[in-house]
Amino acid sequence: MINNEDFLDEIGDSHFSSNAKNPLRADAFDITDEEKIEKIKKDVENILQTLGMDLTDDSIKGTPNRVAKMFVKEIFGGLNPSKQPKASTFDNNYKYGEMLVEKNITVYSTCEHHLLPIIGRAHVAYISSGRVIGLSKMNRIVEYYAKRPQVQERLTMQIVQELQKALGTEDVACVIDAKHLCVNSRGIKDIESSTVTSEFGGKFKDAQTKREFLDYIKLDTQF
């Protein structure tokens, strides 16, 4: 019989998520960012001390505060809904009716199982049904959902769902090709492998439209 700790390890090592949404508690934002930083700072100090590090050394004494600020303000900043980018859209006055593709959007995220980096590229496309969105907003949407403890499948779905809502159309697609340092630097330690995930909505479920999108981004993977 597998005990609960072994089961949870198996979930993490298999990079499996049991939740299609980021698992946030209802009281996640009852304390301020500054209060969170102070609490995390103490936790990081405890980790380093437990590992045997000398926190009086000039090189490391500031690490707990740096890590705490990084967690709250940077790499997990996308957890805070107040930081969600405003997805401003505009009338498609020039009547552009073909696919619009924004490719090679940089993805920096963090695996929620080991808190190690996920680094790669996102390729996003949509077909306007009357509204268009600024190109930089597509990058900002990717960045917002990436800046949280994540699994790549969920991130891919969240990007598509956010753009579908903003543009008022199902015709949105996203492909992410990324390396997971929890695979590359620990465990199996396979430095060559990467993970490709996709989410296709509306017209992008059609084989010809999907193939056109994949041709644009030069991806040979079959879906």
Task: Write the SSE topology.
Layout: H1 4-13, H2 33-50, H3 63-75, E1 89-91, E2 99-111, E3 117-127, E4 131-133, H4 135-146, E5 149-150, H5 152-167, E6 172-180, H6 181-184, E7 195-200, H7 207-216
Parallel strand pairs: 2-5
Antiparallel strand pairs: 1-4, 2-3, 3-6, 6-7
Description:
The chain is of the alpha+beta class. The chain has two domains: 31-74, GTP Cyclohydrolase I, Chain A, domain 1 (Orthogonal Bundle); 88-218, 2-Layer Sandwich (GTP Cyclohydrolase I, domain 2), CATH 3.30.1130.10. The protein contains seven helices and seven strands. The strands form two sheets. The chain has a five-stranded mixed β-sheet, sandwiched between helices. A two-stranded antiparallel sheet has the order 1-4. Helix 2 packs across helix 3 and helix 4 runs antiparallel to helix 5. The chain is globular and about 65 Å long.
Number of strands: 7
What is the H/E order? HHHEEEEHEHEHEH
CATH class call of the largest domain: Alpha Beta
- How much of the sequence lies in strands comes to 15-25%
Main sheet overview? 5 strands, mixed
**Fraction of residues in helix:** 25-40%
Query: What best-fitting shape do the alpha-carbon axes yield?
Result: globular
In total, the number of domains comes to 2
Instruction: Quickly give the structural class.
Output: alpha+beta
Rounded to the nearest angstrom, the distance between the terminal CA atoms is 37 Å
Unreliable parts = none
